[in-house]
Amino acid sequence: MALPTGNGNGVLFPAMLQVTSSRLRLSPNSEHKPEAYDDLKLEFSPLLFSSLERYLPPAMLNLSRDAKIQFMRDILVRYFPEAERTRIQKQREYREQIMSHYQPLYKELQTLDETKFFVPSFLQAVNAGTEESFRNIIIEPTPGVYSFEMLQPNFCEMLISEVENIETWVHDKKFKIMRPNTMNKYGAVLDDFGLEPMLNKLMDIYLRPMAKVFFPEINKLALDSHHGFIVEYGADKDVELGFHVDDSEVTLNVCLGKEFFGGELYFRGVRCDKHVNTGTHQEEVGYYSHIPGRAVLHRGRHRHGARATTSGERLNLIMWCRSSAYRELKRYQTDFSSWCGECLRRKKERQHRAVAATKMELLKRDGISTS
Fold this sequence. Notes:
Elements: H1 14-17, H2 46-53, H3 65-79, H4 82-99, H5 114-117, H6 120-128, H7 131-135, E1 139-142, E2 145-149, H8 153-173, E3 187-189, H9 196-214, H10 216-219, E4 225-234, E5 241-244, E6 250-257, E7 260-262, E8 265-270, E9 285-288, E10 294-299, E11 302-306, E12 309-322, H11 324-330, H12 341-365
């Protein structure tokens, strides 16, 4: 479906002429319910359009969907380089090729039935939507890392079977698929196999409220895209995962099974780009052992890795949740002391030095020797 352009003849809608020079809001309109764009074949994620709609000037909110699409697309094209748009188009064609040949084992995975997917305690916390309700279900094995029961065993088993079906199809058809990332050579990108709408819903309805509580500086600008995939560890798969940060603002990591030993996560503090390779302080050292059905939620910039899976086989569902607005604003910031451990340490050092210098100056003024 072609993108709408004005009245269909390349002419701007009259109402558009009044707002084309308007600027986006600095903060989202939390009371506005954006439209859905999933039914359109757009060159950007439908969720990105829904998220951006909350930032539209007030005069645009009552315009037609076509008018809003044109306005938002003009903005996105301005900020997305041609190479990135080409990559998105190729990715769409790649996914269409897969879905025209691959037969899902469980089509019900493509929708999100919360009563069959999630454990009751997680659903109750999400429905309450309060900080207290979320803190009642989590443990914090190390500062900034939150663990909670999330997925029912039956859902975990279904998703594992679906991944095994994908691997069988890939082998039989000799189809070359994109693996999750540059570090994981085994597993599958779930978005490529028809699960993108389900994962969008998972992020938008269930993870965003949690991010608002635990990572407020990120979520106030809204998570609007994701990269969802399965990783596989075992003797004939990936064995361990090196020290790294994720390409995300918030990461969800849920163990699906199977039976295994090892594979513990280790954490070494949150860092901005500038300080990602700095040392670790003792209070930043933390560990987490996987339990099937249990999730871990942390900042993408939280440095971590996975120790070797010494026996058995382990599969994990990973979601890298991203915020385009947060990434854009971050380009103009120099101080990340609200979340970067090293920025905070250096800021405190500067403050201590300033306080010491002030005391020294006051003593000198009073004629008191500092020797």
